[in-house]
What we know:
This protein has four helices and 29 strands. By secondary structure, it is α+β, with helices and mostly antiparallel strands. It comes from Streptomyces cremeus.
Amino acid sequence: xxxxxxxxxKRRRGLAYASALLGGVLVLSGCSDDGKxxxxxxxxxxxxKSQEQSDAAAAKDTSKAxxxxxxxxxxxxxxxxxxxxxxxxxxxxTEVKLTDAAGKEVKGTIAADGTSWKPDTRLERATVYKxxxxxxxxxxxxxxxxxSFTTVSxxxxxxxxxxxxxxxxxxxxxxxxxxxxKAITNKKAVQAGIEVTSSSGQEVVGxxxxxxxxxxxxxxxxxxxxEVTMKLKLDGVEGADGVLGVQDKTVKFTVGRNQVSTxxxxxxxxxxxQDGKVVRTIPISAGSPDNPTYNGKMVIxxxxxxxxxxxxxxxxxxxxxxxxxxxxxxPHAMRLSTSGTFIHxxxxxxxxxxxxxNTSHGCVGLSDTQGADDPNTPGAWFFNNxxxxxxxxxxxxxxxxxxxxxxxNGWNLDWAAWKAGSEV
Length: 424
């Protein structure tokens, strides 16, 4: 019994000792875990603090110059005139480079104050370009920006081919005539993007003949000696759904003396006036009764010292389909219509027909020599004293009046009808 008590006491002391030992281990283990967790948190905080210090240092060294490049990177259908540009705030540009897909550089100019850049020439259509820019701030710290973009394709753009040419000198009847390479459905916007003015102060109005042709003229002929200016501001103008204009240019031409020549088919004579005074009367041979010359006001649109005239090209053919005439060296020819009406020299007809009979297929013939080398013939004189844009009026012909859009002949519309064709 006593022994049993002693044994239990020893056992209890052993268990207590073991418990104490295990408790110590647990405590030690608990201390070890807590120490490890505190150490990890301290490392993370240190790394974060170090990163913040690095970021602050980097920000301190960053240039204040802010570069803006237009268009946005990846842009498509970019205009070829004014869309590519670079500006900078709080700094100055030091280098701008624009290259195409082949690496060819497009020259450009940084403004004198260093805050902007633009190309010196218009860009090519349907081309991928890369643009990079570098600027520095007041502390000479550099900033960089890069962009890539694609210019508008021919499929998604339109241009207007126009006459007269920049810097030319023309007669008083010369309209500004624009032929667009695609049909225009947004005529109002396109016409609003074109301005035609004259130094004479004459009102100038546009008239649409169809979806691709727009002409401008004043109510009466241009004033002799005036200067006409056309501004094409079509870059980015939507002419049709998804079809943008790409032109941005100014065209100027001068108007010469006022020469108007009147062909009287009945009397077979042409009276030439300059500034209202008769300078010469010339016998002519107009269209025959079977092929009469159009009546109306016509404008000389082209001049050729010599040219070929083949009847087959204007519908005059024989039973075999060959042209009723084919003259390869017609002298001193000047076009009056798109359909083939000319006023030209004639060396193959008898001299008696000039002033005596109307024998042509619709043209107005003047006496001339083969080779166009005799300046004393009526044909040579009229050619040498005429310019593109001069007016030739035909009257007393049995034919109808020429259509206003057959050549540059919008003068056959009165002013009210002309203005009715405007979209502005």
